[in-house]
Design brief:
Strand content: 25-35%
CATH class of the largest domain: Alpha Beta
Strand order of the largest sheet: 3-4-5-9-8-7-6
Oligomer: single chain
Order of helices and strands: HHHEEHEHEEHEEEEHHHHEEEEE
Bound molecules: biotin
Number of strands: 14
Shape: globular
CATH superfamily of the largest domain: Bira Bifunctional Protein, Domain 2
Number of domains: 3
Structural class: alpha+beta
Distance between the termini: 44 Å
């Protein structure tokens, strides 16, 4: 857990320049030894710092920190009206918006650090301060859960469009909602609902994107991963967040009127495993194989197995390219 003062220091160091212990101490109104202690905590949280004897500290891999004003400015240029909130540190942006249900609509919450970020299937979500994007968008729907079954897939389409607009091209989707590039995971989507089965409902769309992952963080993640920096070069996280949020808002407005049908063809075009042989692991440990036909009108995965059609809904199922 990084204290708020550590974030104040990191924002100051985000320019990548050398800052003396004295200046930093003045910034937070504390002693130099407190500065040193806070920056040690930042290093433990995964940030790479250079300490130059007698001269001060420099943030290696410096990156602009999340900045509400910059996000609002970029969003303004793109159109959709959203309430924007940026937190330094929070348990999970999804959990926080769900705690505030049902009072939310068009609410974007981004965090520099999640202390208990959650992924699909009960997994933890690993992210790094300054190198990841972790945020959630809360949206109120009049419709209930049945209508929203394809929403996480439509969200994937919106995010890939935004990544492309920011120069991160060639990203594909892997059912149900992984963002992948050349077989490596770039990000993921966790959609959670609160409300009546028949509506209205609050949808929380949680998104995690690896923007620039240091090697140490990659080693902590138990699957092949990639980041935007590797795919398309340096990318400004505030700009990327505004693009993704704007595309998500446009998608949600359209989904309200037209449902998943409006996104299905594009989703299939962008599916990394389309028409490929896959293994589907079921919650009981058994594995079913077949060839991907596509997704149906509800976003369920459809396989062909010896001429028979098999249908899988999201949840505890996982899919991978067949080994044979
Ligand atoms: C996955 O691929 O398993 C989904 C990952 C979703 C992670 C994001 S980060 C922001 C939001 N808050 C969370 O706790 N999880 C989602």
């Amino acid at each position: 857990m990084l204290p708020p003062l550590a974030f104040t220091l990191l924002r100051r160091l985000a320019d990548g320049e050398l800052h003396s212990g004295e200046t930093l101490a003045a910034t937070i109104g504390m002693t130099r030894s407190r500065v040193s202690q806070l920056l040690r905590q930042a290093e433990t949280a995964g940030l790479a710092l250079e300490r130059v004897r007698g001269r001060g500290y420099r943030l290696l891999d410096a990156t602009p920190f999340l900045d509400r004003a910059a996000i609002v400015r970029e969003l303004g240029a793109r159109g959709p009206k959203l309430i924007v909130e940026v937190a330094d540190s929070i348990d999970s942006t999804n959990s926080e918006l769900l705690r505030r249900a049902p009072r939310l609509h068009r609410h974007l919450l981004a965090a520099e650090l999640q202390t208990a970020g959650r992924g699909r299937r009960g997994r933890a979500w690993t992210a790094v301060v300054g190198g990841s994007l972790t945020f959630s968008l809360g949206w109120r729907f009049e419709q209930g859960a049945g209508y929203l079954s394809g929403l996480s897939l439509a969200a994937g389409v919106a995010i890939v469009r935004a990544l492309e607009a920011c120069g991160c091209t060639g990203v594909q989707l892997k059912w149900p909602n992984d963002l992948v590039h050349a077989g490596r995971k770039l990000g993921g989507i966790l959609i959670e609902l609160s409300g009546d089965a028949l509506g209205p409902s609050l949808v929380v769309i949680g998104v995690g994107i690896n923007v620039r992952l240091p090697d140490a963080a990659r080693r902590d993640i138990a699957q092949p991963v990639t980041d935007c920096a590797t795919i398309g070069g340096a990318i400004d996280r505030n700009r990327l967040l505004a693009h993704v949020a704007a595309e998500l808002a446009l998608m949600l407005e359209r989904y309200e009127r037209e449902g998943f049908a409006a996104f299905r063809a594009e989703w299939q075009r962008r599916h990394a495993l389309q028409r490929l042989p896959v293994d589907v692991s079921l919650p009981d440990g058994s594995v079913v194989n077949g060839k991907v036909v596509g997704v149906d009108a509800d976003g369920a995965l459809v396989l062909d197995r010896d001429g028979r059609r098999l249908r899988f809904v999201t949840g505890e199922v996982s899919v991978r390219k067949a080994k044979r």
